């Protein structure tokens, strides 16, 4: 049973002869390669419209930098990429991935993103008293170094409702966020399919 959280009740070392394991950080002068991204077919199926995927683009879009759930942890970072997805109707999605300098930094970023998403309903309601925000914690997924899935529902005082599914995953020093959204409420969220999407997103980071 998912845990409901209501606002107000509440982140080359390779030397011949040495066998020390994997590289923890790339040389400072080496260009970081973009990790693998989701394709349109990896998104939760839409009942009436096919998904279209944009190109993988370096950086973080302005919408993410201004987002109350994700902006503080993802905004302005180097070695970041994103990919937008859309349907012909009101459903859209985005994946943002960042490669950190080392494992410890990636662990910290993963933790910070989870904390920010959990705090997001309170920030939304503080910024706009006409919006009520509710978060559901759908739990962890057993993929690579871990992933966590959330649902965020917002409703305005005049009745407009939106539902988002957000997930954070990590593989080594790479952290990825998948953000799906449309008009509706929790009953409209394809949670089971989004778990598969998140698992694929993290597996693609290799």
Could you give the topology of this structure?
Blueprint: E1 3-6, E2 52-53, E3 57-58, H1 62-65, H2 71-74, E4 80-86, E5 92-99, H3 103-127, E6 131-141, E7 147-156, E8 161-171, E9 174-183, H4 191-203
Antiparallel strand pairs: 1-6, 2-4, 3-4, 4-5, 5-9, 6-7, 7-8, 8-9
Please give the CATH architecture: 3-Layer(aba) Sandwich
The biggest beta sheet reads: 9 strands, antiparallel
**CATH class annotation:** Alpha Beta
Q: Mean pLDDT score, rounded? A: 86
Number of strands: 9
Count of spatially separate domains:
1
Helical residues, percent: 10-25%
Series of secondary-structure elements, N-terminal to C-terminal = EEEHHEEHEEEEH
The CATH topology turns out to be Protein Transport Mog1p, Chain A
Q: Strand share of the residues? A: 25-35%
Separate helix tally: 4
Distance between the termini: 32 Å
What is the approximate shape?
globular
Rg measurement, Å: 18 Å
List low-pLDDT spans: 6-29
Q: Which structural category fits the helices and strands? A: alpha+beta
Please provide a written account of the structure.
- With 206 residues, the chain is α+β, with helices and mostly antiparallel strands.
- It has a single domain (51-203), classed as 3-Layer(aba) Sandwich (Protein Transport Mog1p, Chain A), CATH 3.40.1000.
- The chain is 22% helix and 32% strand.
- It has four helices and nine strands.
- It has helices at 62-65, 71-74, 103-127, 191-203, and strands at 3-6, 52-53, 57-58, 80-86, 92-99, 131-141, 147-156, 161-171, 174-183.
- Strands 1, 2, 3, 4, 5, 6, 7, 8 and 9 form a nine-stranded antiparallel beta sheet that branches.
- The longest helix is centred in the middle third of the chain and has 25 residues, at 103-127.
- The chain is globular.
């Amino acid at each position: 049973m998912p845990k409901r959280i209501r606002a107000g009740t509440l982140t080359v070392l390779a030397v011949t002869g040495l066998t020390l394991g994997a590289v923890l950080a790339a040389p400072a002068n080496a260009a970081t390669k973009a990790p693998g991204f989701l394709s349109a077919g990896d998104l939760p199926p839409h009942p009436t419209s096919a998904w279209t995927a944009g190109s993988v683009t370096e950086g973080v879009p302005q919408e993410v930098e201004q987002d109350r759930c994700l902006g503080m942890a993802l905004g302005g970072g180097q070695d970041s990429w994103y990919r937008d997805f859309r349907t012909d109707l009101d459903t859209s999605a985005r994946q943002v991935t960042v490669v950190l300098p080392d494992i410890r930094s990636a662990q910290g970023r993963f933790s910070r993103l989870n904390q920010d998403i959990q705090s997001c309903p309170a920030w939304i309601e503080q910024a706009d008293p006409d919006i009520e925000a509710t978060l559901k914690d759908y739990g962890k997924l057993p993929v690579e170094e871990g992933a966590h899935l959330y649902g965020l529902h917002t409703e305005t005082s005049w009745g407009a409702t939106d539902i988002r599914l957000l997930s954070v995953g990590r593989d080594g020093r790479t952290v990825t966020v998948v953000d799906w959204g449309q008009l509706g409420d929790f009953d409209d969220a394809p949670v089971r399919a989004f778990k598969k999407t998140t698992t694929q997103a993290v597996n693609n980071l290799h």
